[in-house]
Write a structure and sequence with these properties.
By secondary structure, this protein is α/β, with parallel strands linked by helices. Helices cover about 25% and strands about 25% of the residues.
Length: about 375
Amino acid sequence: MYEPAGVKTSANFPVPGQMKAWVLGDPDQLFLRDKPTPVPGRAEVLVRIDAVAICATDLEIIHGGSPASILGGLPFNKNFTPGHEYMGTVAALGPGVDEYAIGERVSVEIHAGCGQCKRCRQGMYTSCLNYGRADKNHRANGFTTDGGFAEYAVNHINTLARVPDSMSDAEATLVVTAGTSMYGLTELGGLVAGESVVVIGPGPIGLLAVAVAKALGANPVILTGTRNARLAIGKELGADRTVNIADENAVEVVKQLTDGIGADYVIECAGTAATVNQAIHMANRGGKICLAAFPHDPVTTDLAHLVKNNIYVYGIRGEGRGATRRAMALMAAKRFDATRIHTHTFALADLPTALRYARDRVEDAIKVVVTTRQANAHASAAAE
């Protein structure tokens, strides 16, 4: 029986006292276990997870903990539930919550900052100075607090975005990825319509960065990579030009397409020394480079070129400044079709197989989605 004090529930959405959840064991180990269904506190709701997408960061956390910061020490705390790109249905309301109603479909952001530190007050809650401190009410589901590879999760109301009935569960899980792309394009002054954008790396964030850039009025939008099939998807999402770097010199192509001056914005989504340096030489004077990937090794860069040309470089973490809600607005308005990157779907019980498809790119998997419901009326309606 699920009857926490002060928590509002509904007979239409019964909540069990125990839920199924995948939990970490040793590195690269996951086990399906029963865990107590979490209890929402003030300004929080309980979300029944209906679908969750797999991110490359999930694979890193399962393998070795980083870049998560989980209570219990590295590589990670056993019994922790990863997963952060999920959507679901509001199943219970924490004390005093009236901003959402039980039964509403919602997509989530990862981070809920403490709301007290300087960065949170600036809207930079993904850079919360109390990151990982539960005593300061910081949450980063799937990173510092239990995430979405489960039947239920607790989310702060500030992390929620309503999902329209016309949108399938699977599409709604992609809002986090689109939000990260949105954040990368709107930080440091923001993209101005008509500016040129280069996206390096046709992974999920890169492909949706193409779509978001085009929806925001960028011109031209150039996508570089090595996989022709993914470059073709980039074309469908709005890329004006694609470059297979095995066949062409990407820096030269960018210069040719921008009258020799280089691009206004470069979003680097590959995280290698070669691509970071390509980004530096693609940007024009006073241009901006967003580093959206996590390089695994130290990167040697041409700093002199950056300084001499007054090029701005910034990193992003997640989907700050409400970028997920802004991405949801574009997706709900059908400004781009995020489902073009959704390639495979598995049931929650088959999570290990889903992770293998995502990790090993089986059948050229791009975005793999795990569902907790066998029948999805919304997905069927959206497909009609």
